[in-house]
Write a structure and sequence with these properties.
This protein is α+β, with helices and mostly antiparallel strands. It contains two helices and eight strands, in the order ββαββββαββ.
Length: 154
């Protein structure tokens, strides 16, 4: 006994069998299983790029501050940002520290009059997805580093 799903206005045995429909569903599921990890990897990399871009922006401001004041800024406030640390959303814009859409927390560490390191630490979903690279750092010398084991983070 065959089970048919008839087309509207169809004649007789025109239509799809249940087996044919299940084959199509299996193919769609296979494509989704292959495509979704690739998509999430792409999204993770694009968020990482937004974090790197902001690190370079902070470094640019630090260099301008150094030219004007003969020392590096001691904190983010002196550079014209908010107090403490900054949280970036997926567009590279500032967001609230508790915003679940936050991707990176930006702060400065190892600050002296002649040195600094700016760090981008993944937050919320980015922290779960970007386990290869983890935190990105950029020093006053332009040295780039990561706290994870990834090879292709910068």
């Amino acid at each position: 006994m065959n089970c048919y799903i008839s087309r509207i206005g169809g004649k007789g045995n025109q239509g799809f069998t249940l087996i044919e429909l299940m084959i199509v569903v299996a193919i769609v599921a296979l494509l989704a299983a292959v495509g979704y990890p690739s998509y999430t990897a792409y999204v993770t990399k694009s968020h990482r790029q937004a974090g790197k871009n902001f690190l370079y922006s902070v470094a640019d401001r630090q260099e301008q501050f150094f030219q004007d004041n003969k020392r590096y800024a001691a904190n983010m406030i002196e550079l014209g940002y908010g107090p403490g640390f900054i949280v970036l959303d997926d567009n590279g814009q500032f967001t609230d520290a508790l915003d679940k859409d936050g991707k990176y927390v930006i702060d400065m560490i190892n600050i002296t009059a002649t040195t600094y390191t700016v760090r981008a630490t993944p937050a919320f979903m980015q922290l779960q997805r970007d386990t290869e690279c983890m935190a990105l750092t950029l020093t006053h010398r332009g040295e780039q580093d990561v706290t994870g084991d990834g090879d292709n983070c910068w």
